[in-house]
Task: structure prediction
Amino acid sequence: MTRRPLTLRIGIALQLIGASILMFGSAAWADPAAHYREKCAQCHGADRLGDTGPALIPQTLRRMGGPKIANMILQGRPPTEMPAFADQISAEDANLLAVFLKTPLERIPPWGEDQIQASRTFNEDYVAVEAPVWPSDPKNITLVVETDVHYISVLDGDSFEVLTRFEAPFAVHGAPKLSPDGRYVYVMSRDGWVQKYDLWALREIGRVRAGLNSRNIAISHDGKWLAVANYLPGTLTILSSEDLSFAAIHQINGKDGTPSRVSAVYTTPPRESFILALKDVPEIWEVFYGAKPPFYGFVHDYRDEGPPRETKSFPMRRITTRGLLDDFYFDPTYEYVLGASGNGDGGAVIDLVIGQTVADLELPGRPRLGSAVTWKQDGRTLIATPHLKDNTVSVIDAKSWKTVKRIKTQGPGFFMRSHQNSPHLWGDVFFGPNKDVVHLIDKKSLEIAHTLRPVPGAAVGHIEFTHDGSHALVSVWEDDGAVIVYDAKTLEEVTRLPMRKPLGKYNIGNRLGQ
Ligand code: DHE
Result:
């Protein structure tokens, strides 16, 4: 068993004592670990790694502020199954318990093939169907993730009617990924669960826990393989998309042996590979899923392993970068990857064919490349990205890699989207006092053409278009939130679908690029 250094253990003890002194004015004592065992372990697991309830570890809880966790313990979390404990636990004990839950685990259990295989569960009521059980246009189906209640609505993009609403694993993150025919959707949660759902039958098929704390998921272009980027443990898990069975695992260690978390994984269809952004080492990994690596000469580890084996192998190649890069965007050819630097100041362009950095990006203020948008304008290919730490949208020329325009916005943005039939880039202002604003940037003039304020004072974020681009869907990210549907030409509000904290929206046709 790994033990934390003495200083860290003393630090945690002081944190707990400090919290109790702060809260009660004197060192009142309670044993949060005992409270955990008595009240929480049954649903959240004796090891805090989750059971019927989610994992209660800092990596999962990080996005919830201090008082919120204590409140949740006391008041429960309707409509989820989390009950209220106010009649069993004092406010002081709830605060101590919250501090305990935010303390890192002493030991991370192994999470490899055996554990992953054993975690698979299947829906016994699932029956495959020959054709969709709904009459809607399959390309215009849109999924909407309601973040706090962990539900996904399946929306008909023509009538804006909700066909069904299904339960997702706790804390879905990143875009759900689709099989090439748009029939199956794979949803990943920060708890490491991957859910397979049949959109034709409107039924869950099953789920598997690919990691203990995960970041996102990618699907191979042929729909055969799923790759899951994990923080805990620092691995890439590869699953068969057919039955969610374990296929392979890559332990992530940098060249010098430093272990690393995987920030994200992406598919590069022409290269038949997954590209990994790493959190802790200045490297990019490329893991090949095709019949044989297309760039054999550069696949060092593959050569080391000898000739291809009978069983499926996923050889990998590493590219050394000048600094940490942990947020990626690909040019339309997938020859180049743009990476945002870990220190938040700029980034780099890496040529994936030669495995070299070919340009530096001038993007101060933490670009959010994962939300970037590409379009062609007057013979140029342009890429626009919002910034998490600057009131700017930057526009880059995809040939010279120079920033050609920095557009001033009313605050830092998170999500940005466009459509080939839309003259605008739609970008939210996710942070700061103007978080209720959406900017529409003219793709030709690169100026803000319109600013919408859907619900004054309410946070708005994330935009998606219907398949034909005629309508734009904007999320009001509040408890009593909504998805607001705009006519993308007139900018008139067409309808408002009430939802609880809706955020990510994914149109099947748009996401498949069809
Ligand atoms: Fe995300 C996508 C990383 C915080 C909601 N986010 C992604 C992707 C990455 C990423 C790499 C692309 C994955 C994909 O689609 O396959 N996100 C990060 C972070 O590093 C960051 C800043 C910090 C973290 O701790 O993870 C972060 N993200 C958030 C949030 O706090 C958000 C707003 C709420 C939440 O649910 O966690 C959030 N991220 C989203 C959404 C997408 C996403 C809705 C999919 C966007 C899309 O349109 O495809």
User: Anything to note?
Assistant: The helical segments are 6-24, 32-44, 58-61, 66-75, 91-101, 113-119, 300-305, 508-512. The chain has eight helices and 33 strands. The two ends are 51 Å apart (CA to CA).
